[in-house]
UniProtKB/TrEMBL annotation:
Residues 145-314 form the Metallo-beta-lactamase domain. SMART domains: Lactamase_B. It comes from the Eukaryota. It comes from Chondrus crispus. This is Metallo-beta-lactamase domain-containing protein. InterPro entries: Metallo-B-lactamas, RibonucZ/Hydroxyglut_hydro. The lineage of its organism: Eukaryota, Rhodophyta, Florideophyceae, Rhodymeniophycidae, Gigartinales. It holds the Pfam family Fer4_13.
Length: 344
């Protein structure tokens, strides 16, 4: 599978014979009534972020050496020049929930960027990828750019599990099914909480997946009352299958759940913890709908959860060198959250 390269640009135009980003990834609907324009905060050059950006962080964690925050939105601060950098920038453009990353010229690798998803993800502590973990890209504006993940469950009962939903896009669905079918297909769609469920019914129908969610996150408006598995507090920790456990992590919402995958030593965290570029450390959810104190407790319980790779719904993914490093960093995050953390 393609790998996130961590560096890079993109472009958009309508030259004959060369696909634009709009053509290859269906630019999502705009939030602004006025036509978006190039932000003046962008560095001079081909790649830019326009004024429709919602500052969801997707581009900044995918390509931190290209994008940063400036005055409440993302901007390009380093124009990429290498092929790898150009590819990762195009991947960020495809992943962008609002189609806000643009270029002034057409790209001959636009389709390559689109077809690179699901994307194998790197371990930032090493020059390797984390085996069997993939980012789906195609973030949805309805989840504020929330990340969706795939993880391969190997062993005697193999399958693939999807965690949270990307924007529905037929070519992505075909790519996911092509990857998953030799491995037993997509068996479960785990929904971390109500913010990141957009498109769940379509994805479950397309993939033949069983949806799993906390019952308190279900509602008629989002159609999640139809989810096949609805868990309650007494069910946790819940063994989804051998080596896969669901953990109740209330705080951001009352029914938020994370998923521990022992085979890859991965924790899919939803919105309760992430790596903050601004703070340069692990941090709890910025926006709290339920309880600050419960969120701190949910982060603290991760001290005893055996994982080395964290894959969040928003913000940067994070990695530990070993158990001691995990304990040290999570303990530090808990202290920060109790002493000086200022959520929204």
């Amino acid at each position: 599978m393609p790998v996130a390269a961590f560096a890079g640009p993109v472009h958009v135009s309508h030259h004959p014979g060369t696909p634009s980003l709009r053509a290859v990834c269906r630019r999502p609907p705009r939030f602004s009534a006025s036509a978006p324009v190039r932000r003046p905060e962008n560095a001079p050059g081909d790649l830019y972020v326009d004024s429709s950006c919602i500052d969801c962080d997707t581009c900044k964690w995918l390509a931190p050496q290209i994008f940063h925050s400036s005055h409440g939105q993302s901007a390009v601060y380093n124009q990429p020049t290498t092929p790898d950098a150009q590819l990762i920038a195009l991947q960020a453009a495809v992943a962008c929930p609002t189609g806000s990353i643009r270029t002034t010229k057409p790209s001959r690798i636009a389709r390559d960027a689109r077809s690179s998803f699901p994307l194998a993800m790197p371990n930032t502590l090493e020059s390797t990828t984390v085996p069997d973990v993939f980012y789906n890209g195609f973030a949805s504006p309805d989840t504020f750019g929330g990340a969706s993940w795939l993880v391969i469950q190997r062993g005697d009962d193999p399958c693939v599990i999807m965690f949270d939903c990307p924007r529905f896009f037929k070519p992505l669905s075909k790519a996911i099914k092509k990857m998953a079918e030799p491995l037993g297909g997509i068996r479960y769609l785990v929904l971390s909480h109500q913010d990141d469920v957009a498109g769940h019914a379509k994805w479950a129908s397309e993939l033949g997946a069983e949806r799993v969610i906390h019952k308190r996150e279900c509602n008629e408006r989002q159609g999640t009352t139809a989810c096949e598995v609805q868990l309650e507090d007494a069910n946790f920790p819940y063994t989804l299958m051998e080596g896969v456990e669901l953990i109740h992590v209330p705080g951001h919402t009352s029914g938020s759940i994370a998923m521990l995958h022992r085979g890859t030593q991965s924790l899919f965290t939803g919105d309760h913890i992430f790596y903050s570029q601004r703070e340069d450390r692990l941090c709890g959810a910025r926006y709290i709908m339920h309880s600050r104190e419960e969120l701190v407790k949910s982060v603290e319980k991760l001290v005893n959860i055996p994982f080395l790779h964290g894959w969040p719904g928003h913000g940067g993914h994070f990695h530990f060198s070993d158990e001691e490093d995990r304990i040290t960093q999570i303990t530090s995050a808990v202290k920060f959250m109790r002493d000086s953390w200022k959520p929204w």
